[in-house]
Amino acid sequence: MKTALSTFGAAWLALAVAAGPASAADKPTDPQIAHIAYSAGVIDVQAAKLALSKTRNAEVKSFAQSMRKDHEAVNDMALALVKKLHVKPEDNPTSQALAKAAKQKAAQLRKLKGAAFDKAYIANEVAFHKQVNGALETLLIPSAQNPELKGLLETGLKLFQGHQQHAEHVAAELK
Q1: What angle, 0 to 180 degrees and rounded to 10, lies between the N-to-C axes of helices 147-174 and 30-54?
Q2: Structural domain includes residue 18
Q3: pLDDT tens across 70-115, in order?
Q4: How many domains are contained in the chain?
Q5: Any idea what DSSP says for residue 144?
Q6: Which CATH number fits the domain that encloses residue 139?
Q7: CA–CA separation, 126 and 136 (whole Å)
Q8: In a domain, 4, yes or no
Q9: How far is CA 147 from CA 15, 83, 140, in A?
């Protein structure tokens, strides 16, 4: 039997494996990094919108509103940066795995209601932010060549570390 996070965890495992020791040739390029980061933001915006449509819990709703607002803002900054730099984000296996897992996870979450949905959504957010933060720290930021892209990723990491802490706090309140 699959756990609630197993499908989503598979994509994050792919991202974590990619973040492991690798040669310089295996590291993502700036256009790939831009696509991965943007894809992760879109995924969290979509998850937040789903939560806002399903939850009745004020704390979960507040968290989801923050996720939607913050990830949309970071993605807007990322789009402005790639436009300024004349870089076209490049789809890649990591982005594709993230999108596939997110679609499967959303389908699982849509089947849940009430407290079961709230707990699964928040547990997913904790796992999501842990993995995104880990990938930013160990792969995406170190691999970024453009200083402005690296700076945006570093700013995002600080924000997303706060998201992880917020999600962990909400998860503790839901127990």
Answers
A1: 30
A2: no
A3: 999 999 999 999 999 888 999 999 899 999 999 999 999 999 999 9
A4: 1
A5: -
A6: 1.20.1260.10
A7: 15
A8: no
A9: 23, 15, 12
Q: How many residues does the chain have?
A: 175
Task: Give, in order, the Cα–Cα distances in Å from 165 to each of 74, 127, 130, 133.
Answer: 18, 11, 10, 11
C-beta of residue 33 within 8 angstroms of C-beta of residue 143: yes
Provide the Cα torsion 48, 52, 55, 60; round to 10°: 60
The predicted-structure confidence for 124-160, as pLDDT tens digits, reads as follows 999 999 999 999 999 999 999 999 999 999 999 999 9
Total-model pTM: 0.86
Domain-embedded: residue 22: no
Domain that holds residue 99: 29-174
According to DSSP, residue 29 is labeled P
